Amino acid sequence: MTSPAINPSSIIRLVDTFYGRVREDAVLGPVFEAKLAGRWQEHMPRMYAFWTKVLLGTGEFEGNVFGKHMALSGIGSEHFIRWLMLFKLTTVEVFGAEEAKEAILVAERIASSLQLGFFGEIRV
């Protein structure tokens, strides 16, 4: 992505806004809180690094995103629906509608990959 709307600063704003909404969400909040309670501050820099790597192709993120998510329990299709809805809303809000398109496509690919891992099919 080369859009000037998408830069390290706007990615931090995206991640902060998005995960703020996730934490308050009735569907997603309990799942994330069960895993990250008391550790949000240390986890956020990893999220900034991940999304910077994914959206800009830069940074030093390393990790097994798929494996970490596959270790979660109690995940259903409603979690993916809600995650994508909040991500799309936040991405358009932070980057603008046109600039958000590529980021949304990336998020949809990530969600599809994780759904295949959880369910053996894409349900959203």
Task: For the structure shown, list the relevant keywords.
0% strand, 6 helices, mainly alpha, 124 residues, single chain, globular, Globin-like, 73% helix
Write the layout of secondary structure elements.
Elements: H1 8-24, H2 29-36, H3 40-56, H4 65-70, H5 77-95, H6 97-119
Helix pairs in contact: 1-2, 1-3, 1-5, 5-6
Describe, in plain words, how this protein is organized in 3D.
The chain has 124 residues and is mostly helical. It has a single domain (8-119), classed as Globins (Globin-like, Orthogonal Bundle), CATH 1.10.490. It is built from six helices and no strands. The mean pLDDT is 89.
The count of DSSP E runs of length 2 or more, i.e. the number of strands, is: 0
Q: Report the C-alpha radius of gyration, rounded.
A: 14 Å
Please describe the biggest sheet, giving its number of strands, its sense, and whether it closes into a barrel.
Answer: none
Distance between the termini: 25 Å
Structural class assignment: mainly alpha
What portion of the residues fall into strands of 2 or more residues?
Answer: under 5%
The level of helicity is over 70%
At the first level of CATH, what is the class? Mainly Alpha
- Report the CATH architecture: Orthogonal Bundle
DSSP helical segment count? 6
Order of helices and strands: HHHHHH
Shape: globular
Mean pLDDT: 89
How many domains, in number, for the residues? 1
- What is the CATH homologous superfamily assignment? Globins
And the CATH topology? Globin-like
Low-confidence sequence ranges = none
